[in-house]
User: Fold NAD(P)-dependent oxidoreductase from Bosea eneae.
Amino acid sequence: MSDTHTIGWIGLGKMGLPIASRLAAAGHDIAGFDRDQRRIAEAVEGGVKPAATLADAARRDIVFTSLPDDKVLAAVALSGGLFDAMREGAVLVETSTVSPTISAQVAQAAARRGVAYLRAPVSGNAAIAHTGNLTCFVSGPRAAFDAVLPIAQDFTRAQKYLGEAEEARFAKLAVNLMIAVSAAMMGESIVLARKGNLAWQDILDVLTNSAVGSPMVHYKAKSLETRDFSPTFSCRQMAKDLDLIIGAGQAAEMALPLASLTRETYGALIGRGEGEADFISTVRLAEWLAGLGEPDLDTDEGRLA
Assistant:
């Protein structure tokens, strides 16, 4: 490996932990920090050096953050001492899904410190983070992107540079809007087919082998074969992202009727106790609204009685 930069990683959660471990396995000198000591211990098992404090991780050449939401990013970057610890000329790579508004505030704080700030939200989920098959959208200083690219290539399969400001934030929200609306449509489509007495597997085969058979449809149809709703990305997380999307639309003075309607779908799922279930639980909500129970997959392939 030709890269000699030291890396700090802040946030060893569902995404941060497997990515940091993958970078350690690739030979990078990486130190990780999380408020949860158990996560640091898991990272150490994966070859990541432990950082005793946030400041210890932040003093490295290139610092990555992987955080759950705007509130935590603000606490770390704007009031948590991140930039106090980072040295002038270092690079901050922020990989979370957050609003353009908070990201712009982080950009201002980085500029005051002389830190190059890259917005680099990743697309994919925790189930594939360890495989290197994530993608990332990046905006910020082009020179910083070029410096970080060899590292990004060790945990993503594709990297797209989009501009100097918040372009990457809007790209990630645009992608997640498509995913959310597609999941809502998939739920209603499957239940409509069930009402027409199609077998459970038959409708999944129809969707995957038709013009709508996108990679997401193929991926989710596989787990739906056995009605596996264990979360790769939860309903609650999707609702949070839809709130970001709607907020970005309001700031841009545009209407997002599909986003707003889909947010109501996920609100209903959370209200029914499905907040931690996978976002494709839209199928179960559609079944409930249609008065259907779960199909019996062991008899007649799930046809209605």
